[in-house]
Each structure stands twice: as structure tokens, then as C-alpha cells.
Design brief:
about 260 residues, Pilus assembly protein PilX, 4 helices, PilX_N_dom
Length: about 260
């Protein structure tokens, strides 16, 4: 009888050990998966930041400042009272090695005109928007690896809380000196990694094409019902789709200086 009891006890001990080993193995696998997810998220975040930074560095290149202030430059094109609520949009593409960083022919305008119920994007065509394309004819990504897309938007600030003469150069009078008015311009660099998202290509493209980064609803002389979806920004749109993205905003002051 004692021999049979010992054999039964051995079986129970073995079963308990198997359960313990299974639990430990499961916990180790889960821990490894969590560590892998953390590492992947860190890499994704780093890639998004680097691509947004790369676009801003190109904008801040001193060699191109004069060119950007020209009438067909990224800053000069929107200067003026009539363009305050418009966003000039272009895609930072991999084939920019052969082209200039910014070309007006590869830019688009997103604007919300008085009386409209939503922004429109037809003023300059649709060449400026980044888009996920399966045709393979165009590479809208920032590199040949086709991981990250970076879309840049330029908009002169319409913030109502800015103080008068806040951005003016000290010791100058724009009227008597006959110099240009000092203005503040915002540049939005939005980097997206669509390959890690379950959102549809159509929805991601719609966020980049149809939304504004700084949504400004214009005043209208007629009663207009604004749909809630129309006031959604690019950032909010991508957030709702759970798309990995990074938005960086840089503020620049356009000042006419004399040496």
C-alpha cells in the first residue's frame, strides 16, 4: 500500500511542477512581448521625431531663406491679408534629392472661406498632399524604405490673444521706415507611420487632404451650420484613427532687418 501511495504522490508533485513551469513560461513570454512592444514604440517615436526634425531643419536652412520669402516661396506666397486663414501644404518626399525641398507646383492650399461649412483644398490642386499609394509610381515617403510620411503646412498666425507689436523689431517704425510689417508664421510638421495602423488608406489620406492644422472658422454674414467633423484638425483626425504620428509646431517671426 505504501508503494502505491508514494507513486500517487509523485504524480501529483510532477503535475504541480508542470503547472508552475507553465505559469513561469507564460509570464516570461508576456514579459518578452511587453519589452518588445516598448522597444518598438521607442523606435517608432524616434523615427517620427527624426523625420519631423529633418523637415524643419530644411526650412531653417539659411541658404534658402531669401528664396522662401519670394512671391512663389513657402513664406512669401501666403503673405498678405487675404491669405491669413490659408495653409500652404507640401509633402517632404524621398525624391527631393533630385528636386528642391519646396516647389509651388508641388504644393496645395487648404482654406476655409466665409460662408463655407468646411475647409476646401482645390485652390492649387492636390499635388502637395502626402498620400498612401499602391501604384508605386510616386513615393510620398521620406525614404526608400517607405516607413514614414511627413507633411508640412505653413500658416500665418491668426491667434487672437497676440499683443499689438509683439513681433515687431525694437527701435523701428514700419510706416516711417517703409519696411514690411513683422509677422509670425507657424510651420506644422506631421510625420505619420501608416504601416503600423489598422486604419484604411482612404481614411488616412482624408485626414491629410481635408483637414487643417490650425482650424479657424471664418465669420460669415449668413447663418451657416458647421458640422462637428469640419472643425477636426489633422492631429485630432489621426488620433481618432489610432495612427502612429508626431506633430511638431515651430513658430517663426518674419522681420525685415537692416545691417
Amino acid at each position: 500500500m505504501s508503494q502505491y501511495a508514494q507513486k500517487g504522490a509523485t504524480l501529483i508533485v510532477v503535475l504541480i511542477l508542470l503547472v508552475v513551469i507553465t505559469v513561469i513560461g507564460t509570464m516570461a513570454i508576456r514579459q518578452s512581448m511587453v519589452s518588445l512592444s516598448v522597444a518598438t514604440n521607442a523606435q517608432v517615436q524616434q523615427l517620427l521625431v527624426q523625420n519631423s526634425d529633418a523637415a524643419l531643419y530644411r526650412i531653417e536652412d539659411q541658404k534658402t531663406v531669401v528664396r522662401n520669402l519670394a512671391r512663389d516661396g513657402m513664406f512669401g506666397y501666403l503673405r498678405g491679408v487675404n491669405n491669413k486663414n490659408k495653409e500652404l501644404v507640401f509633402c517632404y518626399r524621398a525624391d527631393q534629392a533630385k528636386l528642391n525641398f519646396f516647389q509651388l507646383t508641388r504644393a496645395s492650399i487648404v482654406e476655409w472661406a466665409s460662408g463655407d461649412t468646411a475647409p476646401k483644398n482645390t485652390a492649387l490642386g492636390s499635388n502637395g498632399f502626402c498620400q498612401i499609394s499602391n501604384s508605386g509610381s510616386d513615393n510620398f515617403f521620406t525614404s526608400g524604405r517607405k516607413l514614414v510620411m511627413t507633411q508640412v503646412a505653413v500658416k500665418y498666425s491668426t491667434a487672437a490673444n497676440d499683443k499689438p507689436f509683439k513681433y515687431s523689431a525694437r527701435g523701428t517704425d514700419t510706416k516711417s521706415a517703409k519696411i514690411d510689417e513683422t509677422e509670425k508664421v507657424n510651420v506644422y510638421s506631421v510625420s505619420v507611420m501608416p504601416g503600423l495602423s489598422t486604419a484604411s488608406t482612404t481614411d488616412i489620406n482624408a485626414c491629410l487632404r481635408n483637414k487643417m492644422n490650425e482650424v479657424t472658422v471664418p465669420e460669415s454674414d449668413v447663418a451657416v451650420t458647421i458640422p462637428a467633423d469640419s472643425t477636426v484638425s489633422v492631429t485630432a483626425c489621426l488620433t481618432a484613427l489610432n495612427v502612429p504620428f508626431m506633430t511638431q509646431v515651430s513658430e517663426y517671426t518674419i522681420v525685415q532687418a537692416f545691417n
